[in-house]
Amino acid sequence: MLSNRSSYMARTENEPTCSLRISRDSDSIWCSRECARYAKRIGFRNGEIWDIAIAVSELVTNVCKFAGTGTVTICWLRVPKSGIELVVEDSGPGIEDIEAASEDGFSEGRRLDDNVPLSERRGLGEGLGAVQRLMDEVIIENRASQGVRVIVRKWLEN
């Protein structure tokens, strides 16, 4: 069962340890804070924690904008090496062109036109590109009639 409360468990293998429900815009702050807390507990440094928090905020904001609801699942990876995995899922319309959507300046299914004022845009078109720059691995999957799944990983440096 998903809740808006985190539950952390001691583990010996890779498995989900915390699931967060996304249902409103303010959840981007809450989810990023929870993921940052978790990253700190497993040994990430402050700069890396900020990277994780920003990436989560971007992904959760996209869920709210384009799907309305979804989940973030946090997993402490121990195999093949130590790190964090975040799985963000929604049941929205999906991403028509994942490669283009990952480029800066692409939002809402199109290249942003500089002539359109920022006040008339739903975003800046920087989110997925920023996530790719901040995290070590990013996998974006359209799920047939089930929305989008984004899996991001950041590895601990020894």
Furnish the topology, listing elements before pairings.
Elements: E1 16-22, H1 27-41, H2 46-66, E2 70-77, E3 83-90, H3 98-101, E4 106-107, E5 110-111, H4 127-134, E6 137-143, E7 147-155
Antiparallel strand pairs: 1-2, 2-3, 3-7, 4-5, 6-7
Helix pairs in contact: 1-2, 2-4
Fold and architecture overview:
- This protein is α+β, with helices and mostly antiparallel strands.
- It has 4 helices and 7 strands; from the N terminus they run βααββαββαββ.
- The protein has helices at residues 27-41, 46-66, 98-101, 127-134; strands at 16-22, 70-77, 83-90, 106-107, 110-111, 137-143, 147-155.
- The strands form 2 sheets. Strands 1-2-3-7-6 form a 5-stranded antiparallel sheet, with helices on one face.
- The longest helix is centred in the middle third of the chain and has 21 residues, at 46-66.
- The protein starts with 15 loop residues before the first strand and ends with a strand.
- 31% of the residues are buried.
